[in-house]
Give the backbone structure.
Amino acid sequence: MGLINAIDDGVLTAYVHYLCVRPEYQAKGIGRELLRQVKEKYQGYLYLLLVAENEPLIKYYKGHGFACYDERSVMMIQND
């Protein structure tokens, strides 16, 4: 139904790599519960980060307590 993945440095920063919920199970609270569990696990960390790639995702994560850090863009190299 749903899957969340987070990596951390063991002390300071955790990064939510992805949150996936099968389309037929979306809007049933599964994503909310997965985020709750990750936020609980990393509540003692200074940072819990993620990347939201579009406006609907930004709105979704803001609704779960995340905030945009500033106007910086995420940068990457995508290898073929």
